[in-house]
Design a protein that fits this description.
Blueprint lengths: L6 E2 L15 E2 L1 H9 L4 H10 L15 E4 L7 E2 L17 E2 L9 E2 L8 E4 L3 E5 L6 E4 L6 E7 L2 E8 L3 E4 L3 E10 L5 H15 L2 E3 L20 H7 L6 E4 L4 E2 L11 E11 L1 E3 L6 E2 L10 E5 L15 E3 L2 E2 L1 E3 L2 H6 L3 E3 L11 E6 L13 E4 L14 E8 L10 E7 L2 E5 L4 E9 L2 E5 L14 E4 L7 E10 L11 E4 L6 E12 L8 E12 L7 E3 L5 E5 L2 E3 L4 E6 L8 E8 L2 E3 L9 E7 L1 E7 L2 E4 L4 E7 L5 E3 L2 E4 L6 E5 L4 E3 L2 E4 L7 E3 L5 E2 L2 H8 L6 E3 L1 H7 L36 E4 L4 E4 L12 H9 L9
Parallel strand pairs: 14-15, 15-17, 16-17, 17-27, 23-24, 27-28, 27-29, 28-30, 29-31, 30-32, 30-33, 31-33, 32-34, 33-35, 35-36, 36-38, 36-39, 37-40, 38-41, 39-42, 40-43, 41-44, 42-45, 43-46, 44-47, 45-48, 46-49, 47-50, 48-51, 49-52, 51-54
Antiparallel strand pairs: 1-2, 3-13, 4-5, 5-6, 6-9, 7-8, 8-13, 9-12, 10-11, 10-13, 18-26, 19-20, 20-25, 21-22, 21-26, 24-25, 52-53, 55-56
């Protein structure tokens, strides 16, 4: 049993290596003891002498509340009177007896609404919203605690007001629920979490406090290594728990469809290994220049390799840049060359390395590493697995450090991949970060780098979702080929692709091939030389809502029907409530704020576009009858921009705001095949469009935006409620033009109005690790 914080040691040890403990211990102190010499049978004896945490201790001082424990079959009854016990899975539960001794039992009087008792190796209540239970609590005050354990782990809600009728939390699997009339101590909180671990998993590994001599069947008797976990051979449908803060230089490939692999915090599986300095030799290559060193790389013998797998290398955790010849390595410190990089690496391969500073790797004291294992966690061949709280990093597989089948990835960090960070067949990714990747990978024949990829040869009937996730590239590095991409090699496209909340920091486009695309609440920051949103190859529905884009200079911040994405024919396309801010510096690559080349019905409404230098704010040159461009705001703030945009004659336009913040008089509107209009009046006459639209000068624009046009550079797109300006027919601009809703990353809700600033996502690996342990605690608006 794990030693929980606050556990009293009933065993006195002699000093071991200068350490001696008597009294209370926690599990990390025990790990320190073991590291100082407490090992083997003595450690096992010590562990067995300790009593684990029990929720009964929460009520030891006559506290009021309830301990409802569906995992304990003896407390369950089929009727509310408590006379007919539940004896088997699938039976309805009418009563749960309170184990706290306070008599606050839970019941469900309506027979048809009673939840079912089920068992997956542990008993649980299938407590869904339509079939739930309730209890009547005495007044537990305003500092009460509600804690429960479900299939996702332990949830603890403090400072609750609890009195009278309560409804038990609803979830697919409820293992226990606790109500308590006070706040938990830190020791109780950690103990309760650990107590829940033994219910949500059946096999355990802990690199710090585990031992491979243990049976691995509880968190307190966890295996220490992944090899030890492999030896247990968990069967399909079983649950594996990896201890928080564990770190393994091993690959976990269970080979069966586990139910889940989880850590309540963050457990790391690293695909790289340190290179022994003695393995380097000075290269005898004729063009090595005396600064290139040779080293032989080999993969882990258990690695399962696929096409496109190749080595990556690091020096003191900095990427060594991949080059295409020894000569280029000799000329560029901080680089390496692998001959025939796409050839099989199943046998040892020779690499040429030029360290930063042209130092000698045999004696410079630096740490050199190379990817050795295909992945950190390998689940590509199985479906239905849930992965949570895992940091998979530096796998050499083309499918990334975390290859997945059709499953769920939740609260994971996937870092420093090659061609991809994660390739998933289908399913859900949420509260996850892809951090960094090998930017120089583009020199290989296997194509460009895309961190998030959904792929399966035949995607018939499959869909994918990404919710509240990010692609983060460190300062000084930019992914240009894409952040999210979905595709197949045969059969129909994915049925649908959905994004609900996604941040790309110094990343590339969000794109893909699926019959329906629903992209909401995308925030692309400092995209670099690429598009922020690239849509195509959809045949029925495309929706892009509440996108927030900063600095996307190439061709289009939002581009639909780019040739690389595939043709759109007959699709209903909607782009609404988006804020697109382009760079304003002189010489920035030209491009459109929004480019539509779709033979589709396009509805572009309630957006704001701040045009960059030399940019065409909008290009809708191909569109079917019924397309609309309404209630949008276009801002030209930079000399060199010569036009408002180009629209097909099929596009109905009205109630738009054109802001000329430069004072120039030669900007134009245009439709293909017609003349060019140099004033709004002329445009109305020639095109019959924009009857009620208005053009504002700089002074008027200053009254429209709460912090002026300049505020948009800081992500402030708010309109001033006091602005009196109207459209031609008297309709107020405020409340009608531009975005009318936005996504708040802190509250995770859609709010009325316009965004007030750019969100600030985690930007370093350490910050990403902090975020993943508790995504809701991150402040995006410091």
């Amino acid at each position: 049993m794990r030693i929980y914080p606050g556990t009293t040691v009933d065993y006195e040890f002699a000093t071991l290596g200068g350490l001696g403990y008597t009294g209370t211990l926690n599990d990390r102190q025990f790990a320190a003891l073991r590291a100082e010499g407490l090992t083997g049978s003595l450690a096992d004896m010590f562990m067995q002498s300790m009593g684990g945490f029990s929720p009964a201790a929460l009520f030891a001082a006559s506290e009021q509340g309830a301990w409802l424990d569906p995992s304990d079959l003896s407390t369950l009854y089929q009727d509310t009177a408590g006379t007919t016990p539940v004896t088997a899975a699938g039976q309805a539960v009418g009563m749960i007896r309170d184990k706290s001794g306070r008599g606050n039992h839970a019941t469900q009087a309506t027979a048809g609404d009673r939840p079912l008792y089920e068992n997956d190796g542990r008993g649980y209540l299938s407590n869904v919203s339509s079939d739930t239970m309730g209890a009547t609590m005495p007044n537990l005050g305003t500092d009460a605690t509600l804690a429960y354990c479900d299939q996702n782990g332990v949830t603890i809600l403090a400072n609750q007001t609890i009195s009278g009728a309560v409804t038990l939390p609803t979830s697919t699997k409820i293992y226990w629920v606790i109500y308590l009339d006070r706040v938990l101590t830190e020791a109780e909180r950690l103990g309760l979490i650990a107590y829940g671990e033994d219910l949500v998993a059946e096999f355990y590994a802990d690199s710090v406090a585990g031992l491979d001599a243990y049976d691995g069947l509880s968190s307190g008797r966890a295996k220490q290594t992944i090899a030890g976990l492999h030896a247990l051979s968990p069967a399909a449908g079983k649950r594996v728990g990896l201890a928080d803060d564990s770190y393994w230089l091993e690959q976990y490939k269970p080979g069966v469809a586990l139910q889940s692999v989880k850590s309540r915090g963050l457990a790391t599986l690293d695909g790289a290994d340190v290179i022994d300095p003695g393995d380097f030799t000075l290269s005898a290559h004729v063009d090595a220049g005396g600064v290139t060193y040779e080293v032989t790389l080999s993969v882990d013998p258990n690695a399962v390799l696929v096409s496109g797998d190749t080595y990556m290398m690091w020096e003191n955790d900095e990427w060594l840049v991949r080059r295409t010849s020894v000569a280029l390595v000799a000329a560029n410190p901080g680089s390496f060359y692998l001959p025939s990089p796409n050839a099989s690496i199943s046998t040892p391969r020779l690499a040429y390395v030029h360290p930063f500073g042209s130092t000698n790797p045999t004696s410079d004291g630096k740490t050199y590493e190379a990817s050795k294992r295909a992945a950190g966690l390998e689940l590509a061949s199985v479906d239905g697995v849930t992965v949570e709280g895992i940091h998979a990093t530096r796998g050499l597989s083309a499918y990334g450090p975390l290859p997945m089948g059709n499953g769920t990835v939740r609260r994971c960090l996937i870092s420093k991949g090659g061609k991809h960070n994660i390739v998933q067949a289908a399913g859900l990714i949420e509260d996850t970060i892809c951090f960094d990747a090998e930017i120089g990978r583009s020199v290989l024949a296997d194509g460009g780098l895309i961190p998030y990829t959904f792929y399966k040869p035949n995607t018939t009937g499959l869909s994918w979702e990404i919710r509240r996730s990010m692609s983060i590239c460190p300062v000084g590095r930019t992914i240009t080929s894409g952040a999210v991409y979905s595709h197949n090699s045969a059969g129909p496209n994915y049925s649908s692709g959905t994004i609900e909340g996604f941040i790309s920091l110094r990343g590339g486009a969000v794109e893909g091939v699926q019959t329906e695309q629903y992209l909401n609440d995308i925030c692309a920051l400092d995209v670099g030389n690429g598009r922020a949103v690239l849509l195509g190859a959809a045949s029925s529905v495309i929706e892009l809502r509440r996108a927030l884009i900063r600095s996307a200079p190439l061709a289009g911040a939002v581009e639909i029907n780019h040739p690389a994405a595939g043709a759109i024919t007959g699709a209903a396309v909607e782009v609404s409530h988006c804020a697109l801010h382009k760079p304003t510096g002189t010489g920035v690559t030209t491009g459109s704020g929004a480019a539509f080349n779709a033979t589709s019905v396009v509805n572009f409404h309630h957006n704001v576009i701040f045009a960059g230098a030399g940019a065409t704010p909008v290009s809708m040159q191909v569109a079917q009858a019924g397309s609309q461009f309404r209630f949008n705001i276009i801002v030209i703030n930079q000399a060199g921009t010569r036009e408002w945009g180009r629209w097909h004659s099929n596009v109905a336009m009205d109630y738009n705001v054109y802001i000329n913040n430069t004072g120039a008089s030669d900007y134009w509107w245009q439709t293909p095949g017609s003349g060019t209009a140099f004033s709004l009046t002329e445009w109305r006459t020639e095109s019959g469009k924009d009857t009620n639209s208005v053009e504002l000068n700089a002074a008027q624009a200053a009254t429209l935006f709460l912090n002026g046009v300049a505020g948009m550079a800081n992500g402030d797109f708010r309109l001033d409620p006091a602005c009196p300006l109207t459209f031609v027919d008297g309709t107020p601009l405020v409340g009608n033009a531009g975005p009318q809703e936005y996504y708040d990353w802190n509250t995770r809700t859609v709010e009325v109005g316009q965004p007030s600033r750019w969100p600030v996502p985690p930007a370093t690996l350490a910050e990403c690790e902090t975020y993943i342990t508790d995504p809701t605690a991150w402040d995006f608006y410091p």
